[in-house]
Amino acid sequence: MSYLIVTIIPIMVLGIYSYTQSRQLLNDQAKQSIERNISTAESSIAYKMELYNNLIQLIVANRLIQDMVSVPNGGEVELSTLANQLREYLDPYFNMMLTSYHGIDKLTIYTESPLPEYGDYLRSATGVSDQSWYREALRKFGIRWYFDESQQAAYAVSKFPETFLSGHHVLYVHVDVKSIFMDAMKLLSDYGLVITDSHGTAAVTNARAAGWFSDAPAGVQEEGISTINGIEFMVINKKIPNTGWTIHCYVPIDQVSGNAAPILYATFIVIGICIAILLIIISLFANGMLRRIYRLNHWMKRVENGGLELKIHNSSKDEIGELTDRFGNMLFRIRELIQEVRQKELHRLQAQMNPHFLYNTLSSINWKALQTKSYEISRIVTSLSKYYRTALNKGDHFISVKNELENVKSYLDIMLITDNYGFDVMYDIDNDVNRFDTINMILQPLVENAIKHGVNRKTEGKGIITISATLVDGNVQFAIMDNGPGMEEELIQNVMKLRSAGYGLRNVQDRIELFFGHGYGITVRGHGEGEEGTTMLITVPQIVKDANLSDLTKKR
């Protein structure tokens, strides 16, 4: 499943990316096709409106017409001459224009000159002077197109040039909308089409746009993707040159990207085929790998049930083969350790018989000494028996502080007798230390060192060894002090480094650090200047064997 998931993700990402890119490509192609159609429609509209613009320019630039409508300041109109000009030139000229240019409904010159009106061709500007299009035409020379909502028609206006004319004259051309936009509406019939004039008024709206935008304004959307009445559209806007009018084309996104469905299906089919092939490959690979894992697990279960004599065989060099080899090596090492434990247990059982023989022998010597009234020998034997009993401690490394102190007392009793009581021993024991445990045989080497390098080297006065045990800062601290000549720093370092065949100070230090960790152990220091003697301190934690040993092991 892990391999499958890890592999499916890039395949899915690649498939989605391919589909997205393909859909984007289709959208771009569709947009380009729509833009080409819009450009064609815009060219058609621009061509027709340019024809009408040419017509307007021909009329406003016609010198005869300019002379007809122009009356010099203070001059009088020759009505008979004007009537002839209108009848013989303007009337046939405008009729020809209306006949030649399809779609023109009306041609009118609005003039401010005191001329008589002549049908629709020549009219006084008084009636239209309040119209916005008329005022705009007077402000600047040029052709302007507008849409008449009441008549659903387009019209263009242009002011006559004022260079040689007196007064203001404006040409008004009324054009049927269908004649201008019919070809564009047919070309863009598959889309929503809205054409607005320079004021944003919708001049043309085809049936599709009318159905989509019946409850919403159209023709004012920015180009891009827009949502109108819950439908997502691609909006394309294009200005018609020299008119100020704009074509707005609305294409539903579904219509643009509808052809992407086969690509989506093909993408999923390819992904499905890849996954199927992948499943087959993963199945073969996983089965080959899992078979060896199951076999290794079977061997482990056999070992768990006691089959330690199992022989592990492996020829593979990959990770599972390496794991199998390590399991075989571990099993071999376990068998070796079990054999070592059995040998040590045999030695321990044999060693248990030696103390019994020793104690029985010492007991017999003690009785013989008592019978012969050799009381010092009896005392030495008794102390020796107690010393070995506490030292051996039934093979246990941990001993109560009380028994450890008893052990060193027995040792000192023997040393006092053999030394003919050549030194004194003082004890300062805090009873609170007796409730704690420590490791055995840590005080005797220090006492032995105090005798050997301390009181035995004293030349004047009697030697004194003081043994104390107190609780200090949450620890148990033993102190062995002597009043000998003291130990030089070099000798202290040598004593701490020496590993004797018995229990040297270094041996004691190593065992304390092994059981309790760094921060515990022996500290040797001399007394102040002018004073004699050496003090050796042993610091161990306050522990009770059964309650604290497991916690201590975890901390270490």
Automatic annotation (TrEMBL):
Question: Which SUPFAM superfamilies does the protein's record reference?
Answer: ATPase domain of HSP90 chaperone/DNA topoisomerase II/histidine kinase, HAMP domain-like
- Annotated Histidine kinase domain ranges read 439-544
Q: Where are the transmembrane segments?
A: 263-286
Q: Name one GO molecular function term.
A: protein histidine kinase activity
Q: Which domain of life is it from?
A: Bacteria
**What does the record give as the reaction this protein catalyses?**
ATP + protein L-histidine = ADP + protein N-phospho-L-histidine
Q: Which UniProt keywords apply?
A: ATP-binding, Cell membrane, Kinase, Membrane, Nucleotide-binding, Phosphoprotein, Transferase, Transmembrane, Transmembrane helix, Two-component regulatory system
InterPro entries (alphabetical): Bact_2-comp_sensor_kinase (IPR050640), HAMP_dom (IPR003660), HATPase_C_sf (IPR036890), HATPase_dom (IPR003594), His_kinase_dom (IPR005467), Sig_transdc_His_kin_internal (IPR010559)
Asked whether the UniProt record includes GTP-binding among its keywords, one would answer no
Using the record's annotation, list all stretches that form the HAMP domain.
287-339
Q: Topology with regard to the membrane?
A: Multi-pass membrane protein
What are the subcellular locations of this protein?
Answer: Cell membrane
E.C. number(s) listed in UniProt: 2.7.13.3
Q: Does the keyword Transport apply?
A: no
The record's listing under PROSITE patterns reads: HAMP (PS50885), HIS_KIN (PS50109)
Chief localization? membrane
Name of the molecule in the record: histidine kinase
| Source species | Paenibacillus mendelii
